[in-house]
Design goal:
The complex is a heterodimer. By secondary structure, chain A is an alpha/beta fold. Chain A has helices at 43-50, 73-79, 96-103, 113-123, 125-129, 140-152, 170-185, 197-202, 221-226, 228-233; strands spanning 3-14, 17-28, 32-36, 56-63, 66-67, 81-84, 158-162, 189-194, 206-211, 214-220. In chain A, the strands form two sheets. Chain A has a six-stranded mixed beta sheet with strand order 6-7-8-3-9-10, with helices on both faces. The longest helix of chain A has 16 residues, at 170-185. Chain A starts with a strand and ends with a helix. The relative contact order of chain A is 0.18. By secondary structure, chain B is mostly helical. Chain B has one domain (2-117, 137-278): ABC transporter involved in vitamin B12 uptake, BtuC. Chain B has a two-stranded antiparallel ribbon. In chain B, α6 (164-174) packs across α8 (186-208) and α9 packs parallel to α11 (264-278). In chain B, 52% of the residues are buried. The chains are: A alpha/beta, B mainly alpha. The A-B interface holds A 51, 53, 72-74, 76-78, 82-83, 85, 88-94, 98, 101-103, 105-106, 110, 150-151, 154 and B 164, 167-168, 170-171, 174-175, 177-186, 287, 289.
């Protein structure tokens, strides 16, 4: 297996406050890797630091063998890392279709916008019927679909999903995790950041537990689900 | 009497169209970057001097002078934003204020050095051409300038609404984090925004160069008028800039004939006060979006 995304000893934070300290993790091609942890553990900061939206004070982020640490975000996206960010961050006064088309603004995918749009609509048929509706008028689940679809429009090599299940109705949560599993079956490499520990570890080949900005546990998804500490602290068992 | 008012209204609408173009530029810059261009009136005056220099000194045809002003100001705005402006977008407002006031003073000073303090005007036979429609007498230059301004305003709306780059500007204005996350080149989008905003001002300046004599100190009046329009019409609202521009144009013109020419800005400020008291978000309020 080829190592796609490799993070070594990453330290990052905001305004001098260190949020992530010395995090190392990797995503191989075709893998779904879960990063779980409580609110404030540094999950979102991890995604933002990989994407160049937060300055990494030390450590190295390597993508496909190239050092991309602290590169401008648009260049990192252009290299093939897309994300569905925390809080989805849709353009609420633009239509679903416009939101998706903007996901393909990068040079790497712009020429194939229409093909990719069709592919996203295949994945989320609900969005196709409502393509002209404003993104702000959608339900939480539908907004999350747009956020994931928008990331996929960039034809990424790896997609980072920040809390895709947050705030969704239980039936939507199941659908969302099914979709993520499907995406992975189609060959997409996924870095999944979640508070929903059980569901996300269940569909991931490997997982990391983040606590106070450091990786405290790692292993296969299955092994972590069996781990006593995980069961106690995150699954309430 | 009716003729007098009708002519005043028509003239007001014509100058209002120019105001709308100026205010559109200010609104686009504010809408996308949340930055107030205090040097906007100076940009109009640059446009007037470019128009004067191209037409009067170089003998270019009027349309070419306008085109030169548009392209030059777009380029200047783009480069300014890339070189300096982008560093100030995240800074507190009082820091931005110092930058743009400094820019305004520098431009006024440069104008005074290059062209001197005396008014410069374009002498052209075309300035005296008029159209007559019934009782109305419409100054041809004024009509052409207004028509061009409206074409640019509507063209800009269409471009912002339908082009991918326009949508990216809209997206960055509405949700900067989301825009960054999907890889929109924010520095480029901001520079385009500054380029377009300043080109609006510069083009408006070139369009009115044949109508008014230029001097370096006209700028603050333009800046204030543009601010009034933007507040009356609604911050960051493009329809607001258009309607506000026409409204201020007409009310100024009517004030000039009904009260006295010196009452023009008095009436504008009254309108401003009424709007602030009754509808502080402006006639057309753009959606308030978080940054």
């Amino acid at each position: 297996m080829t190592r796609l995304l490799d993070i070594q000893d990453l330290t990052a934070g905001y305004n001098g406050v260190t949020v992530l300290s010395g995090v190392s993790l990797h995503v191989d091609e075709g893998e779904t890797v879960a990063v779980v942890g409580a609110n404030g553990a540094g999950k979102t900061t991890l995604i933002r630091a990989i994407a160049g939206m937060v300055h990494a004070t030390s450590g190295i982020v390597t993508f496909s063998g190239t050092n991309i640490t602290n590169q401008p975000t648009d260049r990192i996206c252009e290299a093939g890392i897309a994300q569905s960010p925390e809080g989805r961050q849709l353009f609420v006064s633009l239509s679903i279709e416009d939101n998706l088309r903007l996901g393909a603004i990068l040079k790497r995918a712009r020429a194939r916008t229409d093909d990719n749009l069709a592919r996203v609509f295949d994945l989320f048929p609900k969005l196709k019927a409502r393509r002209h509706q404003l993104a702000g008028t959608l339900s939480g689940g539908e907004q999350q679909m747009v956020a994931i679809g928008r990331a996929l429009m960039a034809e990424p090599k790896v997609v980072m999903l920040d809390e895709p299940s947050l705030g969704l109705a239980p039936v939507m949560v199941d659908l969302m995790f099914d979709t993520i599993a499907d995406l992975n079956k189609q060959g997409m490499s996924i870095l999944l950041v979640e508070q929903n520990t059980g569901e996300s570890l269940a569909l991931s080949s490997r997982g990391y537990v983040l606590e106070n900005g450091s990786v405290v546990l790692q292993g296969t998804g299955e092994a972590l689900l069996q781990d006593d500490r995980v069961r106690k602290a995150y699954l309430g068992l | 009497m009716v003729e007098l008012y009708a002519n005043a209204i028509v003239n007001g609408l014509l100058i209002g169209a120019i105001y709308a173009l100026v205010a559109t530029g200010l609104n686009i810059i504010f809408g996308v970057m949340r930055v107030v261009n205090f040097a906007h009136g100076e940009m109009v005056v640059i446009g007037m001097y470019i128009g004067y220099a191209c037409w009067q000194l170089l003998g270019l045809p009027p349309w070419a002078s306008v085109l030169v002003a548009m392209i030059a100001m777009f380029a200047a705005g783009y480069l300014f934003q890339r070189a300096i402006g982008n560093e100030f977008v995240d800074k507190p407002q009082h820091v931005q204020f110092v930058l743009y006031i400094g820019l305004a003073l520098a431009i006024t000073g440069l104008h005074a050095i290059i062209f001197g303090p005396d008014p410069r005007g374009i002498q052209s036979a075309a300035s005296f051409a008029t159209y007559r429609i019934g009782p109305l007498r419409i100054d041809a230059t004024r009509l052409h300038a207004a028509a061009a301004a409206l074409v640019i305003v509507f063209g800009l709306w269409a471009w912002l609404r339908y082009s991918l780059t326009g949508k990216a500007m809209h997206a960055a204005a509405e949700n900067l984090t989301g825009g960054k996350a999907i890889g929109i080149r924010i520095t480029h989008i901001f520079a385009l925004t500054a380029g377009i905003g300043m080109a609006c001002a510069g083009t408006a300046g070139a369009l009115i160069a044949p109508l008014y004599d230029t001097n370096p100190y006209l700028s603050s009046e333009f800046t204030l008028t543009a601010f009034i329009i933007v507040i009356v019409g609604g911050l960051a609202s493009l329809p607001g800039a258009l309607v506000g521009g026409l409204l201020i144009g007409v009310s100024e013109a009517l004030a000039a004939v009904m009260i006295s020419p010196s009452a023009k800005s008095f009436v504008s400020y009254c309108l401003l006060l009424i709007v602030i008291l009754v509808r502080p978000q402006g006639l057309f309020s753009a959606r308030r979006t978080g940054r």
